[in-house]
Amino acid sequence: MHRAELRRLAALGPDRPGPADGAGPGPAVAPAAPEAPEAPATAETPATPEAPAPAPASVAVERRVEWSDTDAAGHYHFSAVQRWAEAAEAELLRRLGLADLFGRIPRVHFEADYRERLWFGDVVRTELRVDRVGGSSLHYAFEVHGPHGLAASGRMSVVHAAPHAEGAAPWPAPVRRALAEAGPQRSEVQRPEVLR
Fold first, then answer.
1. Cα radius of gyration rounded to whole Å, the chain
2. Contact yes or no for 26/18 (Cβ under 8 A)
3. Is 131 exposed, middle or buried (0-12, 13-18, 19+ CB in 10 A)?
4. More confident: 61 or 28
5. Which of the pair, 193 or 173, is modelled with greater confidence?
6. What is the mean pLDDT of residues 40-69?
7. What is the pTM of this model?
8. How many Å apart are CA 64 and CA 125, to the nearest integer?
9. What is the per-residue burial (b if ≥16 Cβ within 10 Å, else e) of 37-46?
10. Taking the CB of residue 164, how many other CB atoms lie within 10 A of it?
11. What's the burial of 84, exposed, middle or buried (CB within 10 Å: 0-12/13-18/19+)?
12. DSSP class of residue 173?
């Protein structure tokens, strides 16, 4: 019996036999058309349900607000956010095996919105993710969280260029793939004894 016929019988319910099962009168139902055979799996039609799309690379790192991160008002200086974002970027590239990019990815844009004050000694968690990989550019988005939630957020962009090159160069395919598809990397968190 074809699957379509089984589905039809299941829809009739156990108390409503149909003519196809030989159990007597029932509603007149046209015989089911045979199902088309399933197409073999190919690269375009995978045999398994669609897997989730690869996620861009991301990482989270924890740091403590150091005295040198603060200004005369006692809370963190605006420039500390850029250092924390760059520390997260460095950790991400090391985790992806791309540390050799340092010296070849100058910053071309940085912006931040400051939402909450952070004080000397606070533990901050910087979450950085690849937002977009262009032909030769790389765009990050980041958030800095403190004890009371989101403290800052922003974006940072770099370009791929050799140290003495005249201009930008396209990303090599393996680098582009790692940045665009590696997904979340292991976080770097402060050890409890360091937090005391």
1. 29
2. yes
3. middle
4. 61
5. 173
6. 75
7. 0.69
8. 9
9. eeeeeeeeee
10. 5
11. buried
12. H
